[in-house]
Amino acid sequence: MKIAVGSDHVGYELKPTIIEYLKELGYEVKDFGTDSTKRTDYPIYGKKVGEVVANGEYDLGIIMCGTGVGISLAANKVPGIRAVVCSEPYSAKLSKQHNNTNILAFGSRVVGAELAKMIVKEWLDAKFIGGRHERRVDELGAIEDQNDKEFENIEYSQSNKYKD
Ligand code: RB5
């Protein structure tokens, strides 16, 4: 399992701890920058990590900025990316189980190192459960493709299959 990591200068404060933790857990990790607390722009790193996850070079991505918001917005602009910003482990776990998120984001100004590690662990351990959630993730893809026909067909063909 290969994980791409990235941050801006604010997220950088937390990044070395997270990289070390990922390595301890046995993951192969590559850091796509930034490499210091010198001011830079979060879209650069959200885009980079988004691209290597979307093209399959890396299985998953973990990104950080001050809040996790800016860098997750950037990653979500890359087609194929479903990035979630989390400040607690419950949403992190459910975002993988239900939404099949492929990038996790959090903020170095929001969570401390131990909470961040807990969020990371819950997210990495969780698996997409498919079923009724598969249709919804497919619908997200259809929005991204701006394909209304595809969206409607997904809805029409399967909408009565599931209750919740
Ligand atoms: C940088 O000041 C800050 O705006 C950035 O790290 C991030 O929090 C943006 O969403």
Automatic annotation (TrEMBL):
The keyword Isomerase applies. The keyword Isomerase applies. Keywords: Isomerase, Lactose metabolism. D-ribulose 5-phosphate binds at residues 8-9, 66-70, 99, 109, 132, 136. One of its GO terms (biological process) is lactose metabolic process. One of its GO terms (molecular function) is ribose-5-phosphate isomerase activity. The active site is at residues 65, 98. Belongs to the LacAB/RpiB family. PANTHER family: DNA DAMAGE-REPAIR_TOLERATION PROTEIN DRT102, RIBOSE-5-PHOSPHATE ISOMERASE B. NCBIfam families: PRK05571.1, rpiB, rpiB_lacA_lacB. This is Ribose 5-phosphate isomerase B. It comes from Companilactobacillus nuruki.
